Amino acid sequence: MDKKQNVSVLSIVGMGGIGKTTLAQMVCNNETVKSYFDLIMWICVSHNFNKESLTKEMIEATKEECNVTNLNALQNALQKALNSKKFLLVLDDVWSKDWQDLLAPTKGASEGSVVLVTTRSPECMKISDESTIGSRGVINLEGLEEHIYWDFFKSCAFDSVAEANNINPGLKAIGKEICKRLKGSPLAAITIGGTLKNQSVEHWTNIKDSKMWELQKEEHDILSALQLSYQYLPTDLKKCFSFCSLYPKGFIFTQSELTKFWMMQGFIEHLGNDKEMRTQANVYIMELLRRGFFQALEHETYVIHDLMHDVCLSITKDECFCLENGHSEQKVSLDIRHASVFEKKVFLKEQKELCKYQKLLSLKVGPNRCCITVMETWCNVFKHIRSLSLARCKIKKLPENIGNLKHLLFLDISGTYVKTLPESFCNLYSLQYLNMMDCSKIECFPKGFYKLVNLQLFYLAFEMVSLVERFENIVKAIQLYNLKLFLSNYMKIEKLKDLDQLSGSLCITNLQYVPSKEAAQKAQLSNKTFISKLRLDWSINDVIGNNGEDDNEVLDGLCPNHKLKELKISGYRGRNLPPSWLKEEFLPNLTEVEFQYCAKVSTISHLPRFITKLVIHWLPELENLQNLLEPNHLPALNHIELKGCVNQELLSVELFGGFASLEKLIIEVCPKLRSPNAMVLPPSVKYLELIYCGDLDKSIPSCLQNLTSLETLNIRRCNHLVSIPAEVTSNLKSLSKLQLIDCTMLRSLGGHQFLECLQEVYISGCPKLDVTRGQDINIYRKLPSDLLEEWKSSH
After folding, report:
1. Residue 105 contacts residue 79 (beta carbons within 8 Å)
2. Which helix (H) or strand (E) holds 496?
């Protein structure tokens, strides 16, 4: 690299499916690389090379705002964003020699900046003499060596190493023949291997003898292998995969996006609940991943390899087309049935030209601006349309003539700025699916909305439900998830009665507004079988009354569904817990229980035997957990928190060693705890916090003796603690974080090697501790060298 040039280029060249993008992803995810560069950007270039849209993507990758559209302004904005920064820019799947024009704004970047380019064409990588960038060279990726590739192919075609190494000679010979045709491509091995897995010798022979191999046009062409893999997909997966041609190359999918897309195309049946559809979609996604048709990215996102996208296009060329930034990769027939539009800016001409495809059955418009007059024209000409998605489009209203779409089954306007729905909307009698999530600007619904009785799935924020007149006519269709309901004199709990499609978590607050058990039962929580987490809250700042007996009755009336996994009760004013329904025969799947701010509760008589997490916060009247918090009663506990139980006196801490799965233990502000017997802990404990816990601190350091898995130790206000000797600290082999605060009698910590190995140390208010010399220590990674050396020498 020329020292005068701050930006250099490294290119990865190889045939499609050889692993160029995978190698680039590994580079970007490397921790050393991440720490070296100030900024990492990933841009998928592909065939549709457009300087404006690609420059805008680069600006967005820097996390800077971008409100300009012309190229000159975009380049100025990018130059400003990159100024004095050391960046890594990946340009993936480059086909045009013009890619170098994108780098004009990078001249102000810091020295050491790198552009990593992946391409199938070596011709694209010739850098002109006038260029302001230097070259770091070319990495030519070629197919794997034969013996390595054979091992990789077997790993794709068999479930286990043992099975792969013990195949019969006949099957091995067939497999070797197939391997020769895959050109050493990992992608081809994954897709063909997935097709062969758990199949008969006859199936392997059919693959080997397929006529599709004869379609290979070039020496390194693997498209025929990918097309062959597609031919052997189950029918439902064929539809799900092929219609992904309606998305541009490099599009990153979420499970939610795929679920919605497949459902709107009719590929996932209406199973009556969003959760069931997501489960079915996940089955499809996992199978397509296994067969190599999808590739997994971070955070449960997915992408289709550009060669697999080519397969999509070849299959659906007469049925689907995608318009991206005013361009399409294919010639489009007037008989096309499915279209999509993805644009960075408004291409009015192209949007209008869609009107000539009058046989469209589905239209998906990406997150961009749509002209209302164009949409009005669409509603006049698309007489047969069944599915319309305008999700996240920057539109404020729908056309008045949307009621013309008599056959419309699926409509998605989620994330738009729509304020009202036109009166003609009520004429969409066939509508089965309507998504209005994140339509935060909505002000009212048309009066006849309740007539849409064919709605099966209706996604709507709960606070919008009250805007729908006679919503009980369509309530069965409403899909709500992770709902928080604030009760008041106006919002009654019976509003939940018919919302049986609620899923995820449900939080009901201000339960003091519920007057009786009978009123609570009107919510019919037991019918809401898709709720896995339930939180029941009474206001701590109660102004309605303070009748604990009423709370006890109300809580008994809030019996949840039998599939519930997590329960949290807060602010409850009764004296006794748990409610009558909190038993394992009623809630066999319950794993987590939390009680907090229950000011009058004095006893907790029982809990389901196999819960794994128990949290008790600020129950000041609670006196006796001795007979409950024992391994023979709650053997599966791995997480225990006990805070603010200021009247709690006895715990059977000598039995805690029997909690074989215990990983986290917190005991805090329980000053009356007496400890006639020393606490014993199992070696499984990873996190231990003891703060102002009465006589319990007399068990330190003996309770630490066998904690070889302990990672975090937090000790505060433990005034019986005098020393943690070396014979104890030497066993804390996993410890990385230590806090010692206000332990006024603590005098020594044994063994300097113990402190040297810690990543984080905080010591405060320990005036007699020799290592601190009476000073606070707040250290991350290591102790101050002068203190550490002095301490070493004194020990």
Report:
1. yes
2. none
* Sign (positive or negative) of CA dihedral 363, 341, 230, 268: negative
pLDDT digits (tens, 9 = 90+) for 661-678: 999 999 999 999 987 889
Element (H, E) at 13: strand 7-13
| Cβ-count burial 133-166 (b if 16+ within 10 Å, e if not) | bebeeeeebebbeeeebbebbbebbbeeeeebee
Helix/strand/coil for 243: helix
Q: 594-625 burial, b for 16+ CB within 10 Å, e for fewer?
A: bbbbbbbbeebeebbeebbbbbbbbbbebeeb
Q: Strands 338-342 and 320-324: what pairing?
A: parallel
Task: Tokens 């409100």: give the residue.
Answer: 67
> Is the Cβ–Cβ distance between 462 and 486 less than 8 Å?
no
pTM score, whole prediction: 0.65
Looking at the DSSP assignment, which residues form a beta bridge with residue 303?
295
Alpha carbon of residue 588 to chain centroid: 27
Beta bridge partners of 342: 324
Question: Taken in order 280, 286, 292, 295, is the CA torsion positive or negative?
Answer: positive
Strand order in the sheet with 301-303: 253-254, 301-303, 295-296
Q: What does the pLDDT read at residue 784?
A: 44
Q: Angle at CA 226, nearest 5°, toward 41 and 193?
A: 100
Which positions ≥6 away from 381 have C-beta within 8 Å? Answer: 355, 358
Q: What is the pLDDT of residues 243-300, one digit of tens each?
A: 999 998 888 898 888 988 998 888 987 655 667 788 889 999 999 999 999 988 877 8
The pLDDT assigned to 273 comes to 63
Cα 767 to chain center, whole Å?
Answer: 46
DSSP codes of every residue in 180-239: HTTTT-HHHHHHHHHHHTT--HHHHHHHHT-GGGGG--STT--HHHHHHHHHTS-HHHHH
Closest to 293 in 3D by CA, of 284, 266, 263: 284
Question: Per residue, what are the HEC states of 92-143?
Answer: EEECCHHHHHHHHHHHHCCCCEEEEEEECCHHHHCCCCCCCCEEEEEEECCC
Q: Is 39 helix (H, G, I), strand (E, B) or coil?
A: strand
Whether the Cβ atoms of residue 592 and residue 556 lie closer than 8 Å to each other: no
Q: Which two tokens stand for residue 187?
A: 């992608």
Q: What is the bridge-based pairing of β-strands 592-596 and 613-617?
A: parallel
Q: Which residue type sits at 636?
A: A
In contact, 396 and 417? CB cutoff 8 Å: yes
How far is residue 132's CA from residue 742's CA, in Å, rounded to a whole number?
61
- ∠ CA 26-77-110, rounded to 5°: 55
Peptide bond into 671 cis (omega under 30): no
- Looking at residue 490, the DSSP 8-state letter turns out to be S
Tokens 């203190």 found at: 787
Q: What is the mean pLDDT of residues 121-141?
A: 70
Helix, strand, coil proportions of the chain in percent (round to 5)?
35, 20, 45
Burial class (CB in 10 A: 0-12, 13-18, 19+), 418: buried
Residue 333 in tokens: 């027939």
Phi, psi dihedrals of residue 245, rounded to the nearest 5° = -65, -15
